[in-house]
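To assess whether the prediction recovers the assembly geometry, we first specified each molecular entity separately, as shown.
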Amino acid sequence: MSTVIVTGGAGFIGGNFVHYYLWAHPEDRVVCVDKLTYAGNLSTLAPVMDNPNFRFCKLDICDRDGIFKLFEEEKPDIVINFAAESHVDRSIENPQIFLETNIIGTSVMMDACRNFGNVRYHQVSTDEVYGDLPLDRPDMFFTEETPIHTSSPYSSSKAGADLLVQAYYRTYGLPITISRCSNNYGPYHFPEKLIPLMIANCLNDKPLPVYGEGLNVRDWLYVEDHCKAIDLIVHKGRIGEVYNVGGHNEMKNIDIVKLIIKELGKSEDLITYVTDRKGHDLRYAIDPTKIHNELGWLPETKFADGIKKTIKWYLENRIWWEEIISGEYQNYYDKMYSNR
Ligand code: NAD
Ligand code: DAU
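The predicted structure of the complete assembly is given in tokenized form:
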């Protein structure tokens, strides 16, 4: 039996991971550490709150004393760090908190791992650390050897964290791995991100704000496939290695928006082209050969099925996202999208 600390478990991917992990490893104990920022929702964890193998701790990963105390109590075998400020648009408005959580928080978690017997540490990173690829070079992909080359304060903070994780491996021998995944979608996705925002706006007959001409390309992966990849890396990955995770599923933003409109039986008149994101990355595309060859991982959910499942989830769980968009989020939305 292992004790696994999962940070950021009240967020989108961390929440899906907690559900997946408790199901896949019923013998293990999961301790979720989450500060409950605007992006953290306890309702995401409601289905596991009564599970005797689960504990929730409201804690900031930058709180060194609090994190060290928790390690003393729980004596974890594995730490998986999902906690982060994750939205590119917010990082353009206010970079500071991204540096604090994404870099300082990562260092605190790794210091705790070093201090309590070199605990196994996994960093959940992103393909955004590689920058972007040209739209007219479909032959180019991100491999683990692609140089780090970031565009936004968000991706720079994630890249800074990755470099620090690699430094802790080389300098202190901390047993680490890093995964760099492409865009995820699925249940519990906060409605500030493209897919859930478009679903929620469509359902409320609100304009669908497409940045620029909607021609930017992302490589979409169903969140459960990402969770399975992390589980494999943590248990079978080679220490010190980086693994790219991606769906081989590149799509233009505008095509995603049109698909959601079609699935929900709405009109394309809802599409509104708005001012582009500053420094907007053109295209992301992951080459997942390494994780496939070494660990046998492949994405299992096809986009056509995953998007249907996701839309169904948003239709069946209106309370989850309606509570979010009726609160403080409304101020953010007005600030970001009015007069854009
Ligand atoms: P999210 O914004 O939905 O959730 C982040 C969670 O972290 C929230 O629950 C929040 O409360 C918590 N958190 C934030 N600051 C914290 C702090 N200081 N201490 C403790 N908890 C804190 O993010 P997500 O989309 O689930 O992303 C999770 C991780 O995966 C991030 O590290 C992100 O960089 C990475 N990632 C995301 C995607 C994607 O498509 N969403 C793709 C690749 C990698
Ligand atoms: O690639 C992995 C990354 O994917 C993660 O590291 C990030 O945490 C995650 O937020 C995501 O970043 P993106 O910037 O790609 O995701 P977002 O959903 O914000 O935007 C996806 C695309 O849609 C992007 O090209 C911008 C565009 N967009 C987004 C929003 C919110 C719009 O056109 N309109 C919108 O309103």
